[in-house]
Every structure is written in C-alpha cells, then in structure tokens.
Structures
1.
Amino acid sequence: MTRECTAALFDGPGDGFTLATMELAPLNDGEVLVEVTACAVCGSDLHTISGRRPCPQHTVLGHEIVGRVIDTRGPVADWSGGPLAPGDRITWSIAASCGSCFYCTRDLPQKCLQLTKYGHADPGQDGPLGGFSSHCRLLPGTAIFRLPPGLSDLEAVPANCCTATSVAAVRMADPISGAVLLVLGAGSLGLTIAEFALHNSASNVIIADIDPSRLDQATTIAGCTPLLLDPSPDDTSTGRPEVIDNLTDGHGVDVAIDVSGATSAIEAALGWLRIGGQAILVGSVFESPPIPLDPQDVVRRMLRISGLHNYRPRDLQAALAFLAELPSHSVSRTLVGASFPLSDIDRAVEVAHSRTHLRVAITPTD
C-alpha cells in the first residue's frame, strides 16, 4: 500500500511554505516511519527562514520533534537496546551518524563525516526528514529514545535540541556542584541551562540579557539571579558587575556559558571569570566579528575556553530524565507557549519570530 504524508515545503527566505502531499517510499532496512505529533520552531529554523542560514529549496524544516512509531523495516532498537514497535512515543537525535568514521570513533558523532541532520536535508524521493510534516523518516544511525510516560508531547518536544544541548553544555562544565555560573542569553537555551545546572547542585546561576522581558522567567527559577546588561557595545567591556562580585566574594564566576553569540558579551564574560575559570561558547554558530584574546591573560589566569556544537546521544538520554524529574510547572517543561496545526505554519512562524513565547510548536496531527 502506498503511503502519503502532508509536508510544509520551505520555498526560500521571504517566500514562506507550501503544503504538499508527498508519497512515502517503502522503508529501507533499519529505517523507522514516525507520525509527527509535535515539532517546535527552533531558533535555527528562524535563522533559515530569514535567510541567515542557507538550505536547499523545498527542504522540510523542523528538528525538535516527537512522534509515534508507525512502522519499521526489520528489527530496530532504541538507544537502550529495546525493540521499537508501532505506537511507541519517541524522540531522537538531531542527526544520523555512521558510527565508524574518524569523528564517530572519537566520541563526536555530531561531527560525523556522513552526517544527516533532520530538518536540514533535502527530502529527495524517499520522504520528509524534518518535523514540519505529518510524518518523518528516521535513518539508520539515529539514536532513538522512548518518551518518559509522564511527559506530554509539548513538554518533551524541545528535548532533542534545546534540552540536550543544555545538558551537554553543563556536562562540559563539570564539576558543577557548588559552582557559580554565568549564562549569557535568557532564551529557551539559557533558561534550560540555568535550571539544569541548579538541578545538578550549582550554587547559583547568574543569567544575563539585554532584554528585561526575557529575564522575567529567570526570576521564577530558585537560585537564579537575573543580570540586565546595557545593549550599548561599550558597556560590557567595563568592570565586573556588582552582582558577580557579591556572589563570588570578588573572585569571578567559575563558568561562563554563552548562548547569545554576541561577541561583546563573550569578551566581557572572559573578564568576569575567576582564575582557573572556564568559558563555554554555544551560541556562536554564524560569522561574527572577532574578539581580542590576550594569550598572556589566558595563561596567567589559567582560563579554559571550549566550544560546543550540538550534543552526544547520552546528553539526550539525560535531558529526558531531567525533564521527567522536574515538576510540571518548571520553566524547562513549559517552554512551549503556543501550538498551531501544520496548515497554519506561516502563523506559527510569525508568532515564533515575535518572541512572545519561549517556544512555539506545530502539531501536525491536530
């Protein structure tokens, strides 16, 4: 029997989406067909839609996805080794990796030489590889996870990008227990990093942003201290903010995690680290002006500077466990503030662009 799906094809920046019926080719060995129940509009999707990031025309965007297994070709196991069956509620890694290349064998599957990223690839003739569709095809090499029973689709949908990346960033900051963190950027990613760090015994998280409305959510997280930065380029190059000195006895923060990608903020954060402190850069995924770096300062202050792009499958596993352990009213479980059917995708993108909500989701089965 021939299967079909409905997908929103991205026509290019300024051209919006076209809803189309696509034929789903028979599954190949090791593949999984999923009915998409929710897909969040991630910030990277908005960058693609606005033209900041190139992608093939008629790509099916969307990578923060949850869904139900419809079919598999041959036995397919989840990350824990359990066999998948129709009806299983799942999410999966942001990309499929080969498992055997130079980077996969060095525990960097997100840099696989044969990488296929969901929501970024041309669907070709086989069917959608993104979440702005009624169905998504999962390729071999995808790390698949069952959703914890207590999580709704909208609570779980940010897990395989926002939450898993947050987990990876905090993992890099180990040991986190007792640490004072500075998080630059108070969107979904920054707030989730703050909540996960505190969940793992950080003593305090200072979350900084230039937009006071984005800091409102930070005040609802116990142990999180908001810091409003002046948006003028020169402000962040001045002395260390008083709130940092007060929380660190004048030493500076243990770890600074940047998710803003703002070079002025990164430069300032390097100056706000304590001796032996660590900076983790997550948000610099586009070309931006370079920042000056004094090698002598790095050496004498014994600083560590690391970059993070995406995550490893075990970070997604930890992300789902984290969400399941949180109370239902927590920020990380309530990121999605509005949802729209696939037929209203242009409106969903418009609302996502407005930043009225931390996350907006598309629910194709509605």
Note: The chain has a mean pLDDT of 94.
2.
Amino acid sequence: MDELMAALVDEVEDVDEETFHVFFQNHSSTQDLGMLDPRAEEVELAINGRDFTIKQSPGVLQSKREGGTTGAAVWRACLVFAEWLAWAKNPLFSSDLLTSESVTLELGSGISGVVPLIASPRVGRVVATDQQYALKLLQENITNNLPAARPKSPKGHTKQQHAPPSNIDVLALDWETSDIPAFLSTQGLRDGVDAVLMCDCIYNYALIKPLVQTCVEICRARSTRQSNIDEKSKPTICLIAQQLRQPDVFEQWLQAFMASLRVWRVPDGMLTNGLKEGSGYVVHVGLLRDK
C-alpha cells in the first residue's frame, strides 16, 4: 500500500485546482456522451486479446424508467478502464495491493459485465452490482463471455453449453435505497472488500451524495475490521474512472468525496494510453480518512 501511495505522487488537496487541471489545463473534456453504440442489440469487443459479444437493451435505454436507464448500454469508459485492469503492469497488481485472493466490488456495473470479466482472472472474487433492472442482462453477458463459454465450431459459430464455474457474483445494490451494512453481511462481506470499482458513475448531481455514502459505508466495513480484529489488513481502496463531461458535476462529486476520503489522481506513468491526460478520461484513487 505504501509503495503505491508513494508512486501516486501528490495527494489531491484542492477541489478547484484539480477540476481546473483535468478539464482545462489538459483540454480533456468531451461533449460525447460516451456510449459505444446505443442502438445496437449486440456489440462486439476485443480487450487484451479476448473477444466479447455484449447484448444491450436499446428499448430500456430509451424508456422513461424511474431511477434511470444509463446502465442498459456499453460505455467507452468501461472499455478503457477494463484494458487498464488487464494491463500486465497495472500498479494495483504489481504492488500486490490486489492479488489472486482479493475481493473486489463494482458499483454501477450496468449490463456489459466487461469490467468484472476482465478482473475475475486476476482476483479471488468479483461482486458486480447495479439496480435490479440491469441484472438479468448483466448476468447473461457475464455467463456468455466467460472464457470456457465461447468455444467455436468449425464454421466460427459460438456453441451453446452449460455455464462454467465463475468467481463473479451479480447482485442488486441501489445506492439510494440499499442498507449497505446489511448487504455486506448477507453476502459474506462483513469484513469489507479490497477494492471498490466505479466506472463512469458520476454524471448526475442527484446521485453524488448516495454514491459517496455507499463508498464510505463499504470502506468502513474494512476499517472496523482493522480496529477490532486485524490491524494489518489493508484498507479498502476506491478506484473511480470517469469520462470528463461537466466540470460542475465533477467538482461537486470531488468535494463530497474528499470530505470522507483522501484522493489521488493516477498519473500517466501508471496508466494505459486510453486513460492518459488528453484522452477525455481520468482515474482517481480514494482511501477512507482516519477518524
């Protein structure tokens, strides 16, 4: 942990300075919403030498469902974030912050399952979460894209077979309504997780407070364990990848996030090309502040 924190260089101390840096100093913002192809029923992807066929739900995306529908499509930010997670030199793994025994939890997974699918070979358990409406397609995409689920016939068609074993759990978690301690307890996560992954979850003022509070409550589970049981256990690390769209939304999120967590921006030397400055994306790391 100390090795990684030292490599991250400067901790973010000023919300205004960080907002100016990521949006204006590096001309990184974009007006593109960031969906790969919202009208397609299926999209074909290739990440780190693996091929994926991801089903989308254009009908749900275009509906007026209360609670939002953004999770019904594949977002580019998740693809570049997944590429970074798969990178052999990813600092989370090279520093042993994450290992083959680690447990990660993704908030706002959406329907694609790309981030859990990429993370699963490198860690012990992946928990992919979202609102109930997204879970059926999320589970289907994960099941259909596990390595052993995609054998090819001589003509190149994918054969159907029983789902192989997986270390990915797909679970309902709503930032606004879920009881986070109860959720963790019932899912065997009473002692917390090693990492919380968030990819393009920050786009709406109304969701900032519940998202940050959810992160804090998950991190507190591990913090409580450190205090009561195992002082040597590593704290939960939060990883936030996002497309840079609206400075005001970013600024409000960062202010709320920094109130409870220490924050670092991941520098270019620790990122793959798709996430470096000028790409339109940024990755931050958060650690719960000491009481």
Note: The longest helix spans residues 205-228.
